[in-house]
Amino acid sequence: MTKFSLTEKRPLIISGPCSAETEEQTLETCRQIAATGLVDVLRAGVWKPRTKPGSFEGVGLPGLAWMARAKAETGLPIAVEVATAKHVESALAFGVDILWVGARTTVNPFSVQDICDALRGTDTVVLVKNPMNPDINLWVGAVERLRKVGIENIGLIHRGFSAVGGIYRNNPMWHLAIEMQHRMPELPIIGDPSHIAGKREYLAEVAQKCADLNFNGLIVESHICPQEAWSDPEQQLVPSDLVTLLNSIHWRKEKVDKPEFVQALDGFRAEIDQIDAEVFDLLSRRMVVAESIGQVKRDNDVTILQSGRWSDIVDRILAQSDQLKLSKEFISIILNAIHMESISKQNQVMNAR
Ligand code: PEP
Ligand code: MN
Question: Which end of the chain is more exposed for a tag (fewer CB within 10 A), N or C?
């Protein structure tokens, strides 16, 4: 049998309940999802790595049997999460087509290696979720470990990073997903709006963002009765709402060959490149002034930081945020970066021997 290809279709849509709970819930959810005609792969968690003990930790092997039945009935391939070598062996024995490594597993190279050792010699399709913490190297490392045991059919899942505060359950930190695409451009990347958003109301905007960043597909949790789900009740969709969500997403193409488009884009890109050059030239000049300030402070035996001066600068520029049409958050990030570089320059000057 030819192996499932992660790149044959864009968007690749994976859906199913967060957890397989009962045979009835698993099969009925999978039947309704398959009937939408919009989904390529069915998913369910049968072992649930929960942050706290005592939460529902998955039904284990019976869940695999239910998913195998869902596959036989619907003709759709099935995906489950694996966290140990034993999980891998059991999933493969039940004919699971795609395995995924969860965020709480990608963080741990020992666990990833354990999974890899069980996969050696197979040609399993494996999806690797980003680690909980924003450390790209752990994500890359998991892919490298899989490759070392001969796994070639690999994809990435972006599910956001552990967040404190913020409206979403996990912080998408989109720049890290982009960085990962840059580091491993040959790998398809699938967005997980369910675990990023954590709430149904934010699914559409997160899913659209994944599409706009040229992701290859989505993994979305769906349940016949989300409010009674044993895990992640607030982020799962009934299959009919899954249809609404999937139909609302606009999957734009990466590029078109139309000359007007190419010309317009080239023009704007030249403008952006010019502006970037000017921005960095200005920043460089600003740092030269900062060095001069460092010299004056050194010669007069004054500390780098004068209380009040920096908050005056921040307050003045933040007050212009409407005029500049820049968010306060963006201004703060830029100012902090400038301030750090400026302090470091002054520090070099003041402590030069
Ligand atoms: C899941 O997909 O159900 C899951 C547990 O996800 P994550 O590993 O991203 O938390
Ligand atoms: Mn979940």
Answer: C
